[in-house]
Amino acid sequence: MESRVATGFKMEEGPSGIDSQKLECREVFDEYGKELVKLCGKLIKVMSINLGLEEEYLENAFGGEDIGACLRVCFYPKCPQPELTLGLSSHSDPGGITLLLSDEHVYGLQVRKSNNWITVKPAPHAFIVNIGDQIQVLSNAIYKSVEHRVIVNSDKERVSLAFFYNPKSDIPIEPAKELVKPNRPALYTAMTFDQYRLFIRLRGPCGKSQVESLKSPR
Is 103 within 8 Å of 123 (Cβ atoms)? Predict the structure, then answer.
């Protein structure tokens, strides 16, 4: 299931006559999404301060309260030959911040460190936080988006909830002027999130090659 909105977070309306269990589930996801929007708002303020920017800088660059939010429920069935496939190919998330609620008993997420793939072991009752490409651009590559992939399990199914906190789709995203200096010029030219998504979709998932290919020559 997936829902995208321009302001905050909202679940799409379903057909009339929906039974009470489905309605309760929808209400739970709606409240869950709204709370995660608040959490991402706090995280992005901390990231702004850490960059030496005004507290509201990154939030305003994303569109203030007029951001994009998407909740995706991912189901990975068990696979008798997991070495022959991936649940999700290597990529970095194109947006801003990803909050992942993962099964703590069935590992699947791997992150790339140098030339090695490290399996992430989720902590109970905790989110995994991934930085996306838009934060890398805004920070002029001080923050790096996380290259990751998903492997499958031969014995167990796996479910994860991925929440994407993204900029408003039509706002140009470029390095913060405060982070551009003579010895560190702007690495990226301005591009809206819609333009960037189209750019990467035409090329398909391929590690971090998309965002790295946009770097301006020094």
Answer: no
**What is the C-alpha separation between 24 and 31, in angstroms, rounded?**
11
> pLDDT, tens digit, for every residue of 72-106?
999 999 888 887 787 888 999 999 999 999 999 99
Please tell me what DSSP assigns to residue 93: -
Q: Which residue has the tokens 């909830």?
A: 161
Residue 27, helix vs strand vs coil? helix
Of 199, 164, 146, nearest to 70 (Cα)? 164
Please identify every stretch of the chain with a pLDDT value under 50, giving residue numbers as ranges.
Answer: 1-16
* CA dist., res. 98 & res. 72, Å (int): 11
Closest by CA position to 191, among listed 208, 217, 215 = 215
Using a 10 angstrom Cβ sphere, with 0-12 exposed, 13-18 middle and 19 or more buried, the burial of residue 79 is middle
Chain-centre distance for alpha carbon 147: 11
- The tokens of 155 are what? 């014995």
> Rounded to two decimals, what is the model's pTM?
0.85
Both tokens of 114, joined, read 């140098």
